[in-house]
Amino acid sequence: MRRQLRSRRAPAFPHSYRYRLDDQDEVNQNYLADEEEEAEEEARMQKLRLREGLILVIYFFFYASLAAVITLCMYTLFLTIGPYMPTFSERVKPPGVMIRPFAHSLNFNFNVSEPDTWQHYVISLNGFLQGYNDSLQEEMNVDCPPGQYFIQDGNEDEDKKACQFKRSFLKNCSGLEDPTFGYSTGQPCILLKMNRIVGFRPELGDPVKVSCKVQRGDENDIRSINYYPESASFDLRYYPYYGKLTHVNYTSPLVAMHFTDVVKNQAVPVQCQLKGKGIINDVINDRFVGRVIFTLNIET
């Protein structure tokens, strides 16, 4: 009986073998835990990628919709704007002015006895007046009667004729009689032009005039100025201007100021203003709306 009981006992394993089984179980558990963590991390990354993809899709449709709205607005706006005449002109600024020849900082400094100091002014004026040559004006433009608007009816896309403004109208400041425009004698010519404004007409049918004087200081520093044309004005026949698309050969009228008697060897600040109904010439923060200020410093 005792032998039978002994034979039924569980087999005995070595003590080290039990430790090896325990270690293997721990390794298996750690491996399973790592796999679970990797699976959870992969799931989180998938959710993150899905969220990023949704955000990109949302932004795409948002900006696409925004671009479509802007395009539609611009298209609608352009439908209301004509290429030939401005649709809204009630807030257009009064005309500004520019002068020639070009002078750095609008300071005309030269010495009568040194041609190198004034020759660049002569070159600038000659280049500017090439488009005003009499032969070219007679070829391209028509001889209009003075003192009245040159209004041209018809479709707005039809080419418009332009009135002649010949270089010879400037007489002593044309460069034809005196190739140096007075700079060789200390009597410089300066040309003034109004900026073009589509549809602009001088109010009340009175031409815009030009008037120059000493800006500040002794008024006797400028004792004599001759204007060309002699009226010192922009004749009505050059208005209205119909725009560059149809008024292709339009030549802006000029007024020449011939400073025949200016004090020498000192800086003289000069202000030339436009005068006329509806003209603004006293804007403090814009020196070129209706006026221009420059300095003459003629040395002998």
What's the quick description here?
With 300 residues, this protein is α+β, with helices and mostly antiparallel strands. The protein is 30% helix and 19% strand.
Biggest pleated-sheet summary: 5 strands, mixed
Percentage of residues assigned to helices: 25-40%
Number of strands: 9
Which segments are poorly predicted (pLDDT under 50) over 5 or more consecutive residues?
A: 1-7
Number of distinct helices: 4
Give an overview of the whole structure:
There is one protein chain. The radius of gyration is 43 Å and the shape is elongated. It has a five-stranded mixed β-sheet, with no helix packed on it. It has helices at 2-8, 15-79, 119-128, 134-140, and strands at residues 97-100, 107-111, 189-194, 208-214, 222-228, 233-234, 255-262, 267-275, 291-299. It contains four helices and nine strands. It is α+β, with helices and mostly antiparallel strands and 300 residues long. Helix content is 30%, strand content 19%.
Provide keyphrases for this structure.
single chain; 300 residues; alpha+beta; five-stranded mixed β-sheet; four-stranded antiparallel β-sheet; elongated; disordered N terminus
